[in-house]
Write a structure and sequence with these properties.
heterodimer, A: alpha/beta, TIM Barrel, two-stranded antiparallel ribbon, B: mainly beta, 2 helices, about 10% helix
Chain lengths: ~450, ~240
């Protein structure tokens, strides 16, 4: 008799490998079948050290809290105070990150503008240029200056309220992008001076400058083109944040934008998203250190992004030294991305609400990451804009609640001293003491 | 009977960059009204300055007496700029319309991403001439460096001399005309038959640029369009 068939004997249960886990096995099988890597949208999905690994201490005997709902806690921020004649003044320190018309539908861009404007903050163009919907509905609009220069023109440059020179983004520092042909509608094609329906490569390097010395001259040109009125942002993907921030300062930036690997993209290789760059938690303190070392902290503003979800994340980013944050993925979710109401259609696409990330395919049931006119019409830009405004309001109220509990009359008064870390990794990356100790790995030895 | 007098040609308004800051000069040129009577301008002593005469939107003539640095006439939209010297990187970058005429040589990325207008270079142009061009016409009377026409989207690049390595790499719909020979072609760039329509375009551009050349001596290069849709079988080409 075979012992394994005897029901009285305990059987060895199937055991999955931690290394060759079901996801890894499925990817090997998919790669073997297709010969091509996986492309998707969004940012890193792996578990990373993040703001969740930090806690605020709150006030006690040695700290004096502010009265919730009564005592003022300021949220305003001014961006571009270094050189620009017309710095940007925002009511809240939460901005909308750059996302292109092309990657997003016209209605989605309009909704972003409506929501941001209602909340008193800025939105940002993306690769592909500035649309009238976006300019018309965005009180404060940042115009991205990207390597592809798709849609770049002098008229729109002068309509912008600020200019963001994009060196890289957190999902793919060092990488360019590709907008697949199915999203190249006649309008998108015309804006980019390319044929309809072909894959459009977004370059990874700027065509007319290389390195920090050239960047300084490029920024000079942009200022001369716009009468020195507009703040010039420099956006980098988090990889070498100390040196990139220092070089951006040297090149003449008014604002440094630092994007961690959780920050989303419209389309990139999965392997790139998950294996290149730094989580934002590890990037903020080196960038702040560079600003402090050169005497520019709070004089050149720092915007950080990549995985901002809650007011706690906003407050933690500001406590670590940022002046503002930017949201992309969270803003799309607020508009309606991955909403459960489209579950049936997500299942037809082989996914489920909450996990949909094939933004590059243009089949978004929510009508956000698509150029399909039928799908795009599903998104009501007024209602979606209202949802975004609500979400931005909640982020701000939550951050204020935490700041008051720490005794701060402005979100910018939050500081590293208000924080502790739950893990050794987070303590080392954020340069915050491990909870219950005075120990900052790599910085101090005390308990 | 009195005859109407022909208005005398105006003397150009001269800016001296040795005595006035760049900001003043650019601000005045950028603020010119569309129908200004002051249509002739001259800039003396540029001495390699960057971003000279950028962002001008009126059809005035601007003569620059000497060498310029980076991005001269950047984003030009209608002005006619002549550089009596050499030009640094990115001359006429992202030009929308108008003309930019370099009497000497041009450095890298001449006419980069330009949407329209005409860029004429009497001498040679360095690497990546016409990179990512989006509709501009460029005529180089000398030779061009490597990777010229890289990712060029539309417009015409005319090279009377020799083209360096990897000409037209990852080309989209731009035309590249070469008289003096090529060192090598980039990925997805191939020789095309010289059609009557293409020859007419070339002839017009040569005439506009004052180039003494016969269209029959040129070869036409364009996109093979094999990289227009990503396919793993093309991986070796990337």
């Amino acid at each position: 008799m075979n012992e394994t068939s005897d029901p009285r004997i305990p059987q060895t249960r199937p055991r999955f490998s931690a290394t060759f886990d079901p996801h890894s096995i499925a990817e090997i099988q998919r790669a073997a079948a297709t010969g091509i890597y996986d492309i998707r949208g969004g940012g890193a999905k792996r578990k990373l050290p993040h703001f969740d690994d930090l806690l605020f201490l709150g006030a006690s005997i040695s700290r004096y809290p502010l009265e919730g709902y009564r005592e003022r806690c300021g949220t305003d921020v001014t961006l571009g105070t270094r050189f620009a004649k017309n710095p940007i003044k925002l009511k809240i320190p939460v901005t909308i990150a750059g996302m292109s018309f092309g990657a997003l539908s016209g209605n989605a861009k309009e909704a972003l503008g409506r929501g941001a404007t209602a909340a008193g903050t800025s939105t940002t163009t993306g690769d592909g240029g500035m649309t009238p919907e976006e300019r018309g509905h965005s009180q404060t609009l940042v115009y991205q200056y990207l390597p592809s220069r798709y849609g770049m023109n002098l008229t729109d440059l002068r309509k912008a309220d600020a200019i963001e020179v994009v060196i890289g983004q957190g999902a793919k520092p060092g990488g360019g992008g590709i907008l697949l042909g199915q999203k190249i509608s006649p309008r998108v094609a015309a804006m980019r001076n390319l044929p309809e329906g072909i894959d459009q490569r977004s370059a990874c390097r700027h065509p007319d400058w290389t390195g920090p010395d050239d960047l300084e001259i490029k920024i000079l040109e942009l200022r001369e083109l716009t009468n020195w009125e507009k703040p010039i942002y420099v956006k980098v993907g988090a990889s070498r944040p100390y040196y990139d921030t220092a070089l951006a300062i040297k090149a003449g930036a008014d604002v440094v934008v630092l994007d961690g690997m959780q920050g989303g993209t419209a389309a990139t290789q999965e392997v790139f998203i998950e294996h290149v760059g730094l989580p934002i938690l590890a990037a903020i303190r080196p960038a702040v250190q560079a600003l402090q070392d050169l005497g520019y902290h709070r004089k050149i503003q720092l915007i950080v992004s990549g995985g901002i979800r809650t007011g706690a994340d906003v407050a933690k980013a500001l406590a670590l030294g940022a002046d503002a944050v930017a949201i992309g993925t969270a803003a799309l979710i607020a508009l309606g991305d991955n909403a459960p109401e489209w579950e049936e259609e997500y299942r037809k696409l082989g996914t489920t609400s909450g996990a949909y990330d094939d933004w590059h395919e243009g089949r978004d049931p929510a009508g956000i990451t698509t150029q399909d006119p039928v799908l795009a019409a599903r998104l009501d830009p007024v209602k979606a804009g209202r949802r975004l405004a609500n979400y931005l309001s909640v982020l701000t109220l939550e951050a204020q609640a935490i700041a008051r509990a720490c005794g701060k009359s402005h979100l910018h008064n939050l500081e590293p001293e208000d924080l502790v870390a739950l893990t050794i990794e987070a303590a080392a990356m954020a340069q915050i003491p491990l909870a219950g100790t005075n120990w900052i790995p790599g910085k101090s030895t005390g308990f | 009977m009195r005859r109407a007098l022909k208005p005398a040609a105006r003397e150009p308004v001269v800016f001296d960059l040795a005595t006035r800051p760049l900001r003043d000069i650019n601000a005045i040129l950028q603020a010119l009204p569309a129908h200004t009577n002051e249509t002739a301008w001259a800039i003396a002593n540029p001495r390699g300055a960057h971003a000279v005469a950028v962002g001008v939107t009126t059809p005035v003539s601007i003569s620059i007496d000497g060498h310029v640095g980076y991005y001269c006439a950047g984003m030009n939209d209608g002005a006619h700029v002549t550089i009596a010297g050499n030009a640094g990187p990115g001359v006429a970058e992202n030009m929308m319309s108008g003309t930019v005429h370099v009497m000497g040589d041009a450095s890298q990325a001449a006419g980069a991403t330009a949407h329209g207008g005409l860029l004429i270079i009497e001498g040679n142009a360095s690497a990546r001439c016409g990179i990512s061009m989006k509709g501009v016409d460029i005529v180089v009377k000398g030779s061009v460096g490597h990777m010229s026409g890289f990712m060029a989207q539309s417009g015409n690049l005319v090279i009377l001399g020799v083209a360096g390595e990897a000409l037209g790499d990852s080309l989209y719909e731009a035309n590249i005309f070469v008289r003096g020979g090529i060192t090598s072609l980039g990925a997805d760039c191939e020789e095309k038959p010289m059609t009557e329509a293409a020859s007419a375009i070339l002839e017009t551009l040569l005439k506009k640029a004052g180039a003494d050349a016969d269209p029959k001596d040129f070869k036409l290069f364009g996109s093979a369009r094999t990289l227009y849709h990503f396919h793993v079988d093309n991986a070796d080409a990337y």
